[in-house]
Amino acid sequence: MKDPANGDLSTVLVVDDDPGAQLLAQSALELAGFRVCCAADGSAGLAAFKAHAPDCIVLDVIMPGMNGFQLCERVRALPHGQHVPILMMTSLDDMESVTRAYTAGATDFASKGVNPMLLAQRVKFLVRTKLTQDQLRASEAHVRYLAYYDPMTRLPNRQRLVDIITQLGQWASPRGRRIAVMSIDIDNFSGINDTLGQVNGDALIADVAARLRHCLRDPDRALDQSDAQIDLSEPADWLARTGGNEFALAMPGLPDSDAATLVARRIQATLARPFMVAQTELPVSASIGISFFPDDGTDAQLLLKNAHAAMHHAKKSGRGACQLFMESISTRAAQHLSLEADLRKALDRNEFTLHYQPRLMTQDLRVDTVEALLRWRHPQRGMVAPDEFIPLAEQSGLIVEIGDWVLQEACAQARRWRERSGPDWNIAVNVSGVQFRDGTLAARVARAIGAAGIDPHAIELEFTEGALIENSGSVKHAVTRLKELGVSIALDDFGTGYSSLSYLRHFPIDTLKIDRMFVRDITAQNGSQAPLVDAIMAMAKSLGLATVAEGVETDLQWQFLRSRGATQVQGFLFCRPLPVQELLEWNENWMHGGPQRLIGAA
Ligand code: C2E
Ligand code: MG
Ligand code: MG
């Protein structure tokens, strides 16, 4: 945009075959501060317009060759000629030529005898109006761009993809063709962001976008932002960025689910080749969900929603999976939504409660620690198990608030026991990986302990391997801080993740909890052979860690674990998770003969 205050001059093109009139106009315009170029006939005028891109044209009507009306029409037909103001100078002030001037596209007209100084003022007004309109058009275009495109990848956003799919539907419907819609989500992206930082996370997204684009039949068309109306003569594949780490594809004409699955596999293979991020090679896996027009919906929003629900379903079966949409998935997604809404209210309505399950010392089968296990008393559904709502609370971020409540309640319970000469059991609290993300976990734990006024050694936190790996940077810092506070750390569900011995050394952990999947393997059929349990116990010993065996259900399992020197045992054989009062009653009973019965049987 030109700014006279910056010394930028606006240019005016004067086209007139009369040298005297031309000179008068030129001098007046230059006096008024314009740069002026002149042409003596229509075709020279057209050439000058192309060469100088003037901000206004002053145009004589009657000229030899191409006349003013014709030149006006030619300029208007040029891509940059649509918005330039054109002032027609006519000696014929009859109505007919005025009408003709406007029909040809003139902005304004003046009669030829006009005082040149007045003419210059008129031009000034037209140019100023044009500059304002240019500014308006530019900001309109920018707003449109932001509304429909993702500035980082330059790909269409979700809104634009909805437009595109709607248009593709108009192509597919009468031809009886299908459109595959895919939702593609980078697995564990928040973990990557946490570890490598957001700048690198953004760079990775841009690289992923570029690779995805090259999976399309015509990669260049994916960046075409020229027209709201897409070319339907030969519809292309479209790629959009629909969320932070989420992309979506629309592929018109894919015949069936086999073809779509094949494309999905190709996309996953493409992403599996390592990316270079922050000088590190990083393979990326993506979960993909697929829906079809018209089979799974004819409405673009619904197709995207169904593909998204299928993607979520795929994610649950592990990384890098692919899932076709089915009706049952959307039913489940709807249930999830209503459950999520209820979950938001649950804290306010005081619907959470803690049950406690004892961890007993192997040596004498006395309770050492109780694990706090969250329960949700849903007003309609009754008791909802944590496996059903914790993942949901993690996805929505609600787990941070809920986790705070669990910490506060567990600390308060420890306090109540100690105040009323109750048991001096330690309390173990489960912590989700999401609670690490914002780096405030240690402070939150310290606050809960401080508010209850208890000894920090009474609290143990249980993290899963997954939580450690996905957030390794922030976790290490938090775990160190927690240890300094005096809180103990246990690694929950050990053996179900991917951590290696050398990796675990990096974290100051006190205890390994052997997942119940391994304990389940100890059966009479295999002659009580459990090589994995043996291996984990040996490893824990070499690292100087205590062990807790989870899910002990049979006498055989108990005897085996005892013989292998597990530090603590936990499971239904001894006690299920119970509300506080029942737990105390159980303990009364238990201490009358429970340990003797099981240890005596050895
Ligand atoms: P977890 O921390 O591994 O807890 C042990 C789970 O195993 C509990 O399930 C418990 O009831 C069950 N269990 C205990 N002994 C036995 C047994 O002998 N046999 C069998 N089959 N199961 C046994 P629950 O209470 O349903 O909790 C499931 C998971 O939910 C927990 O696994 C934990 O990961 C999560 N969770 C529970 N409370 C919280 C919480 O307050 N915060 C977070 N972030 N996660 C929680
Ligand atoms: Mg646990
Ligand atoms: Mg566990």
What does this structure look like?
This protein is of the alpha/beta class and 602 residues long. The protein folds into three domains: 4-147, Rossmann fold (3-Layer(aba) Sandwich), CATH 3.40.50.2300; 158-325, Reverse transcriptase/Diguanylate cyclase domain (Alpha-Beta Plaits); 339-575, TIM Barrel (Alpha-Beta Barrel), CATH 3.20.20.450. 48% of the residues lie in helices and 19% in strands. It has 22 helices and 21 strands. The strands form four sheets. Strands 13-14-16-17-18-19-20-21 form an eight-stranded mixed barrel, surrounded by four helices. A five-stranded parallel sheet has the order 2-1-3-4-5, sandwiched between helices. Strands 7-8-6-11-12 form a five-stranded mixed sheet, with helices on both faces. A hairpin with a 2-residue loop joins β7 and β8. The chain is elongated. The model has no long low-confidence stretch (mean pLDDT 88). Bound molecules: ligand C2E and magnesium ion (MG) (2 copies). Residues 492-493, 513, 550 line the site of one magnesium ion (MG). Ligand C2E binds at residues 357, 373-374, 385-387, 390, 403, 406, 430-432, 462, 492-493, 516, 550-553, 570-572, 577.
In a nutshell, what does this entry contain?
By secondary structure, the chain is α/β, with parallel strands linked by helices. It contains 22 helices and 21 strands. The strands form four sheets. The chain has an eight-stranded mixed barrel, surrounded by four helices. Strands 2-1-3-4-5 form a five-stranded parallel sheet, with helices on both faces. It has a five-stranded mixed sheet with strand order 7-8-6-11-12, with helices on both faces.
